[in-house]
Amino acid sequence: PSHTHEKPIRKSGTWDLMVEDEILSILPEDTRRPYDMKKIIELLVDQSSFDQSSFLEIKPDYQEGHLCSGWLYSKNGENEKAINEYKRAIELNPDSYDAHLFLGNAYVQKGDIKYALNEYNKVLKILSSNSQDKITEGLALLNEGNMEKAKDCFSEALKLNPESTEAYIQLADIYEKKG
What we know:
The protein is mainly α. The chain has 9 helices and no strands.
């Protein structure tokens, strides 16, 4: 089934049609797949008429909207507002390492190092968990006899957690069997 993009409801003067078309061209057909948030932010930041509060009124449960808004507030030195936006993004998706990372960065800008370290530790836990998920997927693929895809999973696990001994061991076994 093909997925369609839900277009934002336009309010007079709050959304530039050209920006919307550019953003929709970046998004994949299936919006549950990853996409380049940096490109979307750059499109929005370049538009002087962009009003982040009106965007969030349109889609209050849109996590990426809160990340964008937080980033814009942070860029403008409004750390408290940025922190609130990142916290809202985390409420919507507690496993978003980007949201925790951005929140940690906002805390650093504010000078709250203790809170920043707490957020950075959450990022490490999330990435470690994602790494373990890739290892589990790789082991399942090995059991099915699919060494190439398993190798890709173990490589991805190492990208997420370069200190993963288990991923190194599994890759070494694959390379040894290949000869």
